[in-house]
C-alpha cells in the first residue's frame, strides 16, 4: 500500500510538472509571427503604474525589498558593491545606466542603492515582456517600481521624463534586452536623449557576474552562491550643445571602463580610459560557446574598496 502511494505521488508530480511546462501562462503567441496571417495591429493600452508610487505602495515595496527579496538574493548569490561614494555627488534625480545580461540585474541594482535613493528609483521595463499580462505587470510594478516602455520602435514614453521632473531616479538598460552571451550589446540612445532633454546626470554602472549566476533562459540562479559585483561610476553630464548621439558613446565608454576595472585594477583601467584604450566589452569575434565561456570564468578576488552586501 505504501509503495503504491509513493508511486502515485511521483506520477502525479510528474504529470503536474508536464502540464505546467505546456500551459500557456501569458498571451504570447505560440507560433512564429511569420506563420500567422497579417492583421492590422490593435492600439495597445498602457498599463497604469502611477499607483505603484503612492505612499502606501512605497511602504509595501520597502518591506518586500528589505525583507524576502534581500534574503533570497543573498541566499542565492554573493553580491558586492563598490563606488557608492559617487552617488554623494548627486544633488537631484539622475538616470542610472547599466549593462544588462540577467534578470538578476534589477534586484542587484535596487538593493545596492542607499535606502533613501532606492525608495525614489523607478525601472524602465519592456512593455511586451513585463506588461503583457496583468499579474506580471502588477507584480513587477509593486516589487520593482517598473513602468512600461516600448522597445520595438514607436514614440518614446513620456513617463521617464515625468518621473525625473517629480524627483524620481530612473534606471535604464540601454541595450534594450538581456545579452545572450554576457557581453555588452549596442547601446541605444534613449538614456542619452532623456539626460540631454531633461538636463539630468547619468550614473554609469558596471554589473559583472550576473550572466554566469543566472544566464538568459534560466528561471533561477545557478547553485553555489556565485559572486556578482556591482560598480558605480562618477556622474556624467552632457556638455553644452552636446547631442544625444554624441553623448551616448560617452555613456557606453563609462560602463565599459567600470567593467574593465572589475577585470583588472582601478589604476590600470583609469590609465586606459584616459587615453581611450579601454578594451571593448562587446566580446571576442568567436563562436558563441567561446564567448559564453569567457563571461562565466570565475570572478577575481575582492579588494579593500569593495563593500560587502547589506
TrEMBL record:
Keyword RNA-binding: no
UniProt keyword Nucleotide-binding present: no
The Phospholipid/glycerol acyltransferase domain, residue ranges: 94-210
A molecular-function term among this protein's GO annotations: 1-acylglycerol-3-phosphate O-acyltransferase activity
UniProt keyword list: Acyltransferase, Transferase
GO biological process: phosphatidic acid biosynthetic process
Listed Pfam families: Acyltransferase
Superkingdom in the source lineage: Bacteria
Protein name: 1-acyl-sn-glycerol-3-phosphate acyltransferase
Organism of this sequence: Kribbella jiaozuonensis
Amino acid at each position: 500500500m505504501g509503495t503504491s502511494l509513493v508511486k502515485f505521488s511521483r506520477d502525479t508530480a510528474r504529470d503536474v510538472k508536464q502540464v505546467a511546462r505546456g500551459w500557456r501562462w501569458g498571451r504570447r503567441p505560440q507560433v512564429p509571427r511569420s506563420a500567422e496571417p497579417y492583421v492590422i495591429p490593435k492600439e495597445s493600452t498602457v498599463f497604469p503604474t502611477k499607483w505603484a508610487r503612492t505612499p502606501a505602495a512605497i511602504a509595501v515595496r520597502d518591506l518586500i525589498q528589505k525583507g524576502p527579496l534581500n534574503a533570497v538574493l543573498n541566499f542565492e548569490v554573493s553580491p558586492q558593491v563598490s563606488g557608492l561614494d559617487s552617488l554623494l555627488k548627486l544633488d537631484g534625480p539622475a538616470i542610472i545606466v547599466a549593462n544588462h545580461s540577467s534578470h538578476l540585474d534589477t534586484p542587484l541594482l535596487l538593493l545596492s542603492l542607499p535606502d533613501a535613493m532606492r525608495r525614489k528609483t523607478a525601472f524602465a521595463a519592456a512593455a511586451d515582456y513585463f506588461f503583457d499580462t496583468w499579474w506580471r505587470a502588477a507584480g513587477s510594478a509593486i516589487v520593482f517600481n517598473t513602468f512600461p516602455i516600448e522597445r520595438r520602435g514607436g514614440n518614446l514614453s513620456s513617463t521617464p521624463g515625468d518621473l525625473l521632473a517629480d524627483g524620481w531616479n530612473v534606471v535604464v538598460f540601454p541595450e534594450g534586452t538581456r545579452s545572450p552571451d554576457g557581453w555588452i550589446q549596442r547601446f541605444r540612445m534613449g538614456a542619452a536623449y532623456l539626460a540631454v532633454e531633461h538636463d539630468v546626470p547619468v550614473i554609469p554602472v558596471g554589473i559583472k557576474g550576473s550572466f554566469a549566476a543566472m544566464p538568459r533562459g534560466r528561471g533561477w540562479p545557478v547553485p553555489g552562491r556565485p559572486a556578482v559585483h556591482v560598480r558605480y561610476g562618477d556622474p556624467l553630464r552632457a556638455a553644452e550643445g552636446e547631442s544625444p548621439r554624441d553623448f551616448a558613446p560617452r555613456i557606453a565608454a563609462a560602463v565599459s571602463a567600470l567593467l574593465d576595472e572589475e577585470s583588472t585594477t582601478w589604476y590600470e583601467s583609469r590609465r586606459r580610459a584616459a587615453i581611450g584604450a579601454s578594451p571593448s566589452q562587446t566580446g571576442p569575434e568567436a563562436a558563441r560557446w567561446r564567448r559564453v565561456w569567457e563571461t562565466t570564468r570565475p570572478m577575481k578576488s575582492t579588494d579593500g574598496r569593495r563593500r560587502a552586501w547589506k
